[in-house]
Amino acid sequence: MERRRATARHTPFNAQAFLDSAGIAKAVARYARDETIFVQGDGCRHVMYIRTGGVKLSVRSKRGREAVVAMLGPGDFFGEECLAGQPIRIGSATAITPSVILLIDKARMVRLLHEQRAMSDRFIAHMLTRNVRIEEDLIDQLFNSTEKRLARALLQLARYGKRDNPIRVMPRISQETLASMVGTTRSRVNFFLNRFKRLGFIDYQGDLPLTIKSSLLSVVLRE
Q1: What kind of fold does domain 145-221 have according to CATH?
Q2: pTM higher than 0.70 for the full model?
Q3: Which has more pLDDT, 105 or 5?
Q4: Distance of alpha carbon 40 from alpha carbon 214, whole angstroms
């Protein structure tokens, strides 16, 4: 009995299957690469779940300067600020690859979280993981070099350390977007990409997408 319980605890919760069984999969939207999902200031009425593809979350200042907040992939939720009573989107979301997104109405999501413990546990775990990532990003910006920040961003985009198999070939993302993520200039991103290539940490031919090798982790771990 104890062995069966231990196995159940370590079995990953399949949010996709759960949402499908709950009838959520009927609200599906498909987005092309670089297509806008929502923009800063839009009404906030849905929680969203990435079935396939990737999403960039960003904010823009009054002067028009954009900062990339997060890059998300399959299995991630976003837009959950509506659950806290936020009436408008505080940032923008853009598909970075062709993406299939499930749209979950706010009232239905609240009902699911109240009625379904498995779904509630999965969602809380997602939020805690997101908070940890935000704290790590802040520490990264404050204390690490541009080289380390870029290496970490590339590993995150390759889903390094995820329970599912990390991808090795990144989606096509511009060097300008990488610069926004890292907090530097495009020229510095290009400089370090070429350096990583010479060292054998990545492989690309003049433009993204690129292939990430696990040896890139050595840059992040270097004192």
Answers
A1: Arc Repressor Mutant, subunit A (1.10.10)
A2: yes
A3: 105
A4: 36
